[in-house]
Amino acid sequence: MGGSGQPRSAASPRPPSDVARIELNSLAHSYAPKVQRPGDYALRPMNLTWQDGGAYALLGPSGCGKTTLLNIISGLIKPSEGQVLFDGADVTALAPEARNIAQVFQFPVIYDTMSVFDNLAFPLRNRGVRGSEIKKRVQQVAELLDLTPDLKYRASGLSADAKQKVSLGRGLVRSDVAAILFDEPLTVIDPHLKWILRSKLKQIHQEFKLTLIYVTHDQVEALTFADQVVVMVDGSVVQMGTPQALFEDPAHTFVGYFIGSPGMNLLPCRLAGSAAYVGDHPVPLGAETLARAQQAVTPESRVVLGIRPEFLGCSAEENTQSGGVAADITAVEDLGNFKIATATLGGTSVKAKLSEDALLTPGRGWLRFPPERTKLYIDDRAV
Amino acid sequence: MSKTIPRATVRSAPRTQVPRGLGRRLFVVVYFMLLLLPIYWMINMSLKPNREILGGLTFYPHELTFDNYRTIFTDPTWYMGYVNSLIYVGMNTVMSLLIALPAAYAFSRFHFLGANHLFFWLLTNRMAPAAVFLLPFFQLYQNIGLYDTHLAVALAHLLFNVPLAVWILEGFMSGVPREIDETAAVDGYSFPRFFLTIFLPLIRSGIGVTAFFCFMFSWVELLLARTLTSVAAKPIAATMTRTVSASGMDWGLLAAAGVLTIIPGALVIYFVRNHIAKGFALGRV
Amino acid sequence: MKTTNHRAWLLVLPVVISVAFSAILPLITVINYSVQDIFGPFQRVFVGGEWFRDTLRDSELRGAFFRNLLFSAEVLLLEIPLGVAVALALPAKGWRASLSLVLVALPLLIPWNVVGTIWQIFGRADIGLGGFFLNNTLGLNYNYTNDPFDAWMTVLVMDIWHWTPLVVLLCYAGLRAIPEAYYQAARIDAAKPWAIFRYIQLPRLRGVLLIALLLRFMDSFLIYTEPFVVTGGGPGNATTFLSIYLSKLAVGQFDLGPAAAFSLIYFLIIQIFCFIFYTMILNLGKGPAR
Fold this sequence. Notes:
CATH architecture of the largest domain in chain A: 3-Layer(aba) Sandwich
Subcellular location (chain C): Cell membrane; Membrane
Structural class of chain C: mainly alpha
Family (chain C): Belongs to the binding-protein-dependent transport system permease family.
Pfam families (chain C): BPD_transp_1
Radius of gyration of chain A: 25 Å
Mean pLDDT of chain A: 84
Number of strands of chain C: 3
Protein name (chain C): Glycerol ABC transporter, permease protein GlpP
Number of helices of chain A: 9
CATH architecture of one domain in chain C: Orthogonal Bundle
GO cellular component, one term (chain C): plasma membrane
Number of helices of chain C: 12
Oligomer: heterotrimer
Strand content of chain C: under 5%
């Protein structure tokens, strides 16, 4: 039976042909009947492609439109503008049951009066699958999800994590499912069981090469689960990329601030010559960044300099070779295997993450901004 | 269509939507028509003179008249019936809520000795066959000197309204997370202040729904109200039965009086309609 | 979970006092009547269990009892499915939902004798629309004052008209409490409308349906005012339900002893039925929820 580590074979619950690339084509959604201003959009116009077999996390604060986007992909909500394409075919008008997609919700949805077996068989029975086939598939999926001993019991008596596995199982039993969408599925699960369930998900992903889209507002959950993270804020997708790319190259100030602990230092500044001035202090920029910034900037635009605490150098003495910016170090915290220094520069406080053996005390100090790590944001977008 | 979507499912998808919605709307419309028809008929009759009522069936008043209503609004034995009913119903609704609120809070928040039995005992008081309990009621209220007062009816109706109010309110209160009580206590709120300024606003809709049910059951009750009153606090429903049987069947007047008994109820539902929709969505009833 | 706190009794005390005031003294008086033969205000004889024995042998009372049981069964069988169906069909939100609720609740807010009056008028062949329609348009020989079957049907239809709204309101509340995710999951699982009803809506309506069952059983078993106004219990005994028979005994013939004895038995029967329903509700709340 489809136990762990088994390669895809005849015993696997689904044949290999159902693969889907999901494309969102100038998609937008508004719950109001007429859109008068951009703020009326629950989802602002976007183009996005989810590759087949990818593990995606959809990350953003509450109310940013994650769930709306997920429901549009599954067909529960019909978008007010744009199209959803599966493998190039337009499915925008198709009902959820006609799409090869399954969805797991925040709170476990189980059919209380049915046994676990009947719960798992429900989507197949509704689709007119033969009895013997149903039995085979349900047993395979139950085995995979460690639900075999519970099959004959009522689903309402299960614990929250087992219920959530039943919800997932209802997606896995279907041979046509190519993508499973998760809407914060671990909200009601005990912390130590979260780990077990999440590794179960990874295992299923590796085994079946399903496309998984996982909505969460927890960055740790997103970064450990996904190959690709999509960050949303205020109804727009601000960046899609690997966890590393989000860390090293945030495309939006929100990504910088939201991801990482502590988040990116964001310093309002103005451009002059070959440097950005934070208050009166010039910070040197990379040549390429500078060139692009000078092209994009207008007198009204908000210019912000961003640097991760991990990349910001901080020392008590001036280093003549690499140059530095004088600042007041207000605090140094020892957090075990690293130290966090807080300094004030041009009226804004910045943090630097230092190794645990760094020698630093509050007082006068020097900040070093490596030009290749120093990002510039014009109106919140990276240049 | 994508090759991955089974054809059978695609075909079945659009079929289920349209006719179901239509049949459903039709069903609701027919239900409402049957619901409103008897009421319409009474309104229709109340606007006719007796001559036309007895002369033959007309679907709308041919000789439109407001005489029946004029009689009611000019004769104190009639209109005082409405005033009396409204007074004791109002008193009863306020009393039921005041008494039931703390008790519902206790049932929703604490385990205490005999809670379940007490709750069942409260409910059993709805089940007493009124016909035989009327005489003891009459004697009781006469002995304590409350006979023929609004207070007597208001007190007697507590018998079935308080248990109901506790029942409904308990459902709403259980929907409010216990953490709110604890947070308020930590923030230094005294219990009465917490209850009045934080807790009650949270269950506003529940109070609206409860008030609606208390009003309803007190307004529609006739037997107790008639038994406990004679002149000074006589309810409209009793006025209708007595006056009409004494002077023969004045159908038009009877219908007009009947229509006027619906109006306070209709106004109450109109004012609490949003609470009902919202309250019902929140509560477990 | 709930904390144990016996001082909660202080909060419950006003309820106990207010209800006991109107409940206990009359009950004691009725028990007193039931064991005495009362000839006048100062002449009474203790008769022990005689009235209870008589009551159990009284064939007319037994007739009224079975009539009432049949009536309650019919009422429950018709009103509950109809109420569920209407609640399912009502709009879920917007002004239409508000309007529907106002209209549905209307019959509940009409005093019971006025309900009787409405149907008394509506069913008459000469001046009532319903009676006119049945007699002249459908050509039936309908007359609720002469024909026992017609009288029964009139009272039954009246009760359905009057009380189905209560079932509708309760079920409507129950339906609104089902989280949207259940419907969404059902759509993804390709559930047909019947399966959604059978496996999602019905199981989650069980609680409110039992409440509706309890209330409707109690009130239909105690029905008095409405049939009294329409048929007065006739023709013959066709619509003489328990309460109507009892009030004939107690008020009409002043047979207080037998009437009191029977109302105690009556009270007990209703309590037993309701206790069964009530225990079902309690266990329902405990069982699947955990």
